[in-house]
Write a structure and sequence with these properties.
Elements lengths: L5 E5 L9 H9 L5 E5 H4 L7 H9 L3 E7 L7 H10 L18 E7 L17 H4 L1 H9 L3 E2 L3 E3 L15 H17 L1
Helix pairs in contact: 1-7
């Protein structure tokens, strides 16, 4: 594993019900340079400790924003975190608030639906890169290095009748891919 320190900012409002995000965290929990920060466990009241969050950002080289895709976006706490933590003079504008300059922004997503639904030919007529434009632009404005999103699709519980869920074996392969991504930094 590379020597970069990785912070996983995990935004899942119902981790106890999660299949994909829980499996992703379990796959990387033992990596020595990884800090897992469960935001909904830390801030159930949405009262974010800005100074603590900024200290965590400064102490890490790679910032992973891990969450399910909710209505073509992130869970609400992720947006609240961005609004309160990425402040003027700290995270932007370039040249003035450049404390995050050069840090890596990695988005790690799960979806309930199949991957083909998140393509230009799918029902949304957009792929993950299109859907994540606000996040990419935030990274750019904070002088961070945007990475292509990591995604695991079809993580609904096996046997779900309205969507085709990936099997446990497929999920293990995908979480191994996630681990390999983090180890590559």
């Amino acid at each position: 594993m590379a020597d970069k320190k990785i912070l996983i900012n995990l935004f899942h409002p119902r981790m106890e019900q999660s299949r994909g995000n829980k499996a992703m965290i379990d796959a990387v929990r033992d990596l020595p340079n990884v800090t897992i920060h469960d935001m909904y466990a830390e801030y159930p009241d949405f009262k974010i400790n800005v100074a603590r969050e900024q200290e965590l950002l400064l102490a890490h080289d790679v910032i992973v924003f891990q969450h399910p895709l909710f209505w073509i976006s992130s869970p609400a706490l992720c947006k609240e975190w961005q609004d309160t933590v990425l402040t003027k003079g700290f995270a932007f504008p370039p040249g003035e608030g450049d404390q995050l300059a050069g840090k890596i922004w990695q988005t790690a997503l799960t979806t309930g639906g199949p991957a083909e639904g998140y393509t230009k030919a799918g029902p949304f007529k957009a792929d993950f890169e299109d859907m994540l434009i606000p996040f990419r632009l935030t990274a750019v404005y904070c002088s961070m290095k945007w990475q292509p999103p990591f995604t695991i699709s079809s993580v609904m519980p096996e046997g779900d009748t309205w969507m085709r869920a990936i099997t446990e074996e497929q999920l293990q392969k995908e979480t191994a891919r996630y681990r390999a991504l983090l180890e590559s930094f």
